Amino acid sequence: MIDRTSLEPREIVSTPFAHPESEITVDTAIGNGKIAVSSLPLVGETVAFTGTLASMTHRDAIRLVEQYGGRATHTVSGSTTMLVIGEEGWPLEPDGGTSQKLQQTLQLVADGSNIRVLAESDWLQLLGLDERREEIRRAHTPAMLSRLLDVPVGMIRRWARLGLIRPVRRVCRLPYFAYQEVASARRLAMLLDQGVSADILERSLSELSHTMAGTDRSLAQLNLLVQDDKILMRDDRGVLNPRTGQRLLDFDVNDGFGVFSPSDEGTSSNDPTDHEEADDETISIPFSSARPDLQDRRMTDWNAEEWFHEGCRLTEEEELESAINAFRNAMSLLSAEFAAVRLSSEHPADDQLSLFPDPAEVNFHMADALYRTGRVEAAIERYYCAIESAPDFIEAWTQLGCLQSQLDQSDAAEQSLATAISIHPENPDALLHYAQLLDQSQRATEAVDYWKQYLQHDCRGPWSDHARDRIAKATPVAVPAPMSGDDLFG
Predict the structure, then answer these.
(1) pTM above 0.90, yes or no
(2) What is the CATH class of 1-134?
(3) How much is the mean pLDDT over the chain?
(4) What is the pLDDT of residues 318-357, one digit of tens each?
(5) How far apart are CA 377 and CA 375, in angstroms?
(6) Where does the chain hold its CATH 1.25.40.10 domain(s)?
(7) How far, in whole angstroms, is CA 171 from its chain's centroid?
(8) At the top level of CATH, which class does the domain 299-474 belong to?
(9) What is the DSSP string of 385-446?
C-alpha cells in the first residue's frame, strides 16, 4: 500500500484495560473505605512471559497480571505457575534456540512442577479479554501487516506468491492473511538472514511443537525459506523455483519422483491419492523431478505466464526497468496465446484458461513497478487497465485513489476510494486512505465516520492512535451553559 504521509510506525502502545465485571466481586468495608477484590482469574498465580507479545507490550502485560490478582515475574523459577508465550513470531533466541524461559519451564515441568504454558491468545481468553484475543487472530491485508510488522508490502506479496504464507480468504482479489503466520515467516527469515542454521531452527520448532499448536506450519515455512535451485515447489499452477519465482514444466507424479509435503511429517509417497485432501497445499519436490524448462530455452521462446513471473521476480529484486519490460512482454503475448486457445475450442475449459496470467494482475504489477520508478501518470493508466479487466479489483481502485491524491486530483481520488469502499465496505486500506483524503481536504468532520470504521479493523496498529487523535480533534467538546445568578446562589 502506498503510504504518502510522514507518520512512522512506532511501538504498539496498548490502551488501559478495564476489569470484566463478570470476573470481579467487590466488597467495601464502610468503616475504613478499603476495597477487597476477590475471584480474579490470576489470584495465586505467578506469571512469566516469553517471546514477543502481539496484543500489548510486556510492561502492559505485567500491569495486567497485577490488576487481575496475580504476581508478574521476569524470571522462571520453582514458584512460577504460568508461562505465557507471545504470538508475534515464536520464542526464539538470536542464536535460533528456544527461549531460556521456555527451556527452564519445560525442565521444571519434567521435574514435577505444576506450571501451565499458555499461548497469548489463550491467556487473554482466560482473563475474559476476548476482544484482544480476536485482534491477534484477525486476518489482515498485506498493507495492514506491512504497518504492523514493519515488513515491505512487496515482501509479503513475494511470500504469498512462493507459498510461504497463504491467504485465509480473498475478497475481490484482496488477500487476507493470518497475523501469526506472517509474523512467523518474518522471524524465521530474519534469523536465517543473520546466519542461524536451518538445522537449529528446525530443532527449536520441533521442541515447540510439543508445547504449542501451529509449529507444523512454521516448519513448512522454514522448508521453503531455505530452498535454493536444488528444490522446487509444486502448487495448483505447476512447478515453481522458489528462489527465482520462475515456472518450469510440470512433471508426472507417477514417474517415480518423490514428492514431499510438509503435512506428511517427513514421509513421502508416489501415490497421488495420498495428497487428494491437500491439493491446495504448496509442496516441494527435488529439482531433478522437473525439467528445468526455462534454463534450456531461449527467452524469445517464453510464454506470457513465464514472462509474468519473471516480471514479479525482477520487481522483488528491484530491477524495475527490466520488470516493466517483462510485464510488457507478458501482455503482448497474452492476447495471441488466448486467441489461439479460443480458436481451438469455442468454450475453453477452466484448466486451459489457468495456463495464462490474469491480465488484471499483470497490469496491476506493472503499475506498481512504474510507480516505483517515478512514473506516476503511467502507473495510473495501468491501474485503469487492471480495473477494465476486473471492475471489482479493490486493491487497484485503492492504489489508483492514492496516486490521484498524490497528483492533487482530489475529486478523482475521492471517487476511486469511494468505489473501493462500495465494493468492499470493510476494506481497512480504503477506509484509511479515504479518511486521510477527507482530512487533507479540510473535511475533518466527514472523516470521523471513516476513522471510526477503520478502528473496527485496526485498534492497536501504528495508525490506530492517529485515528483516535483525529476523531478527538474533530469531535466538538460540549461546553456547559453559563450559570445564572439563581443557579449560583440558590
Answers:
(1) no
(2) alpha beta
(3) 75
(4) 899 999 999 999 998 887 766 666 555 555 555 444 567 8
(5) 6
(6) 299-474
(7) 15
(8) mainly alpha
(9) HHHHH-TT-HHHHHHHHHHHHHTT-HHHHHHHHHHHHHH-TT-HHHHHHHHHHHHHTT-HHH
